[in-house]
Amino acid sequence: MSVAGPPQDAKAPSGGSDLAQRGSVGAHITVAGPPQDAKAPSGGSDLAQRGSVGAHMTAAADLLYQEVVVEHKRAPRHFGKLAAPTHEARGRNPQCGDEVEVQLRLQDGRVADIAFHGQGCAICIASSSMMTEAVLGRDLEAARELQRRFRAVLTGHAEPDPAALGKLVSLSGVCRYPSRIKCALLGWHALMHAIGEGSDAPFGASKALP
Fold first, then answer.
1. Under 8 Å CB-to-CB from 94, ≥6 apart: which residues?
2. CA 171 to CA 174: how far, in whole Å?
3. pTM as predicted
4. What residues contact residue 132 under an 8 Å CB cut-off, 6+ apart?
5. Three-state DSSP class for 124?
6. What top-level class would CATH report for the domain 75-208?
């Protein structure tokens, strides 16, 4: 797997017990966006107007995407280590250096608590951060379904649906950068490994704890 991207951001701080060390993992971050949309197609005024509206919508979506990534990279949610996890797994991408460990405390088939720690690019950390917010409190089947929907959107097999994805829909723009899709999915792969689902991502460890 070849993952191209900007130079690695500063390492995220190692976690403390029970999320005591959720920290800032980068004060100055630049998130690259796509080239500006092409000029509106030539033709009648209706066609030109539709092209202009489409360009504005794409620009607005790109701006939201960049703002969300920067915010979650700067202050990732649930960043750190759990004091008493029941399940954990680590995802690693040796080619780009991203490495994320996800810890869970499962209770009665639900995600009672979740944390992650590690280092990675802005997209990797932001996606993992948003994942923890999205699955906390859900039952395992709902978490699996959300992972399937999110992956389908990023790989171009489904349309972004705010009703199904919630805030995660703001990351749907990653699908325009094929080299960054695995960055965005790394934390999710670790989550699936932690709850016993298979994945094709490289991992160093995956286990349910006694």
1. 202
2. 6
3. 0.67
4. 77, 78, 114, 115, 116
5. helix
6. alpha beta
Q: What is the pLDDT of residues 108-146, one digit of tens each?
A: 999 999 999 999 999 999 999 999 999 999 999 999 999
Per domain, the residue ranges of the chain are 75-208
CA pair distance 58, 148, nearest whole angstrom: 25
Strand order in the sheet with 87-93: 110-119, 98-107, 87-93, 203-208
Judge contact between 195 and 209, C-beta under 8 A. Answer: no
DSSP structure class, residue 198: -
Sequence-separated (6 or more) residues with CB below 8 Å from residue 77: 22, 129, 130, 132, 133
- CA nearest neighbour of 194 among 117, 86, 97, 94: 86
Tabulate helix, strand, coil % of the chain (nearest 5): 45, 15, 40
